[in-house]
Each structure stands twice: as structure tokens, then as C-alpha cells.
Amino acid sequence: MLRGNKVGLRARHEDDIPVLQAELHDDVANAARAQGRPWRPITPGSKESQFVVDDKKQGHVPFSVVELDGGALVGAATLWGIDDHNRSAHIGLGLLPSSRGRGYGTDVVAVLCHYGFVVRGLQRLQIETLSDNAAMLRSAERSGFVREGVLRSSAWVLGEFMDEVLLGLLVQDWKPDSKQYSKG
Ligand SMILES: CC(C)(COP(=O)(O)OP(=O)(O)OC[C@H]1O[C@@H](n2cnc3c(N)ncnc32)[C@H](O)[C@@H]1OP(=O)(O)O)[C@@H](O)C(=O)NCCC(=O)NCCS
Prior knowledge:
Elements: E1 2-3, E2 7-10, H1 17-25, H2 28-35, E3 60-67, E4 73-83, E5 88-95, H3 104-119, E6 124-130, H4 134-142, E7 146-157, E8 160-170
């Protein structure tokens, strides 16, 4: 498990899937904002769930996010689009509604930076988020991500086009928290 200050990132367990499906995917507004494609219902147990893991997909690394104190599942996080030639990847995350606003998102971004830069040897990480997603923008900026541009009207979300903000972080600009990632 990768450890932050408050949360850990571990492999997806079978019994995480229905919880993530119910709390993240089945919340239509949340899913429509986060997924970049039209929401559709997914049959319970379906292999089509975005939370089902294919361990053979090398460029896509999904984690479940758990509290370090007690191990409760609090969300999902992914390093995706890993490009080993350009040494870049994208970050995605979603926390269960009851676990938002407690600093976990900031912690998850920091741990994914450690995974991307240290474990995978990448040199650039990128996040795309809707321009009104203040918590995501702030969580990214706390790890040193900078706003590199606005993708105007790039996302169709429940009846309107919205802007997305593109954030990037280069390894040489990353200032890791030295207290993190202890193996204990
Ligand atoms: C976006 C998300 C991952 C952020 O995680 P979080 O744990 O809620 O955020 P944190 O508690 O770490 O807060 C980060 C910062 O945003 C601020 N913040 C939190 N919620 C906020 C809100 N609703 N509005 C404005 N600011 C907010 C916090 O005060 C904190 O700022 P600070 O560092 O200056 O104190 C989480 O809210 C979430 O899962 N949202 C739904 C899914 C989603 O939007 N995913 C991202 C898709 S790209």
C-alpha cells in the first residue's frame, strides 16, 4: 500500500466495487461531471463497471483509497494514460460524498505524485477538471500543479458546455512532503 498522511492507496478489492458503483457512478450528477461521457446505468456485477480492474492494462493503474486509521474505503484514484515514451500520465480521483472536504483529496494527489514520479519514473503529470471544481483545483495546486490552460466549452455536462482547466506538474517542480510514504 502507498501511504499518505491520512489515506492509503491499495489494490481494488472485489467488495469495493459495489460501494464505488453506488456512491460514485449511480450519483448521476457526480458521474456526468467526472466521466466525460454520457451517464448510463450499469447492471450490478457487470464487468463494464469502470471500477472493475484489468491487471493486464499496463498504462492504467487503478487504486482504492482507504483511511489509514481503520482502513475504511473512501474513494477511487487512478494514474491513467501512462506514456512511457514521453514519461507522462494523467491523474483521476473521486471520493465518496461523506469523505469529501477532509483533506483526503489533497493527500491522494500527493500520493499519486509519489507513485508517478518515484515509482514510475515519470516527468510530467496532468489533471483535467471542470473549471468550477474548486476542491479539485485546490487539491492539485497544493501539490504544486499549475494551471496551464483552459479548454473552452470542452465538456458537455447535463445540458450545458463547461470549460475544463488543464493543470500540469513537472518532476523538477515537485516538492514532496518528506514525512509521507513511510512503509510501516
Ligand atoms: C475533488 C475531490 C477529489 C477533492 O477532494 P477533497 O478531499 O474533497 O478536498 P480537500 O478536503 O483535500 O480540500 C482541498 C482544498 O479545497 C477546498 N475545498 C474543499 N471542498 C471545497 C468546496 N466544495 N468548495 C470550495 N473549496 C473546497 C478545501 O478547503 C481545501 O483548500 P485548502 O487547501 O486551502 O484548505 C473530492 O471533493 C471529490 O471526490 N469530488 C467529487 C468527484 C470529483 O470532482 N473528482 C475530480 C474529477 S477531475
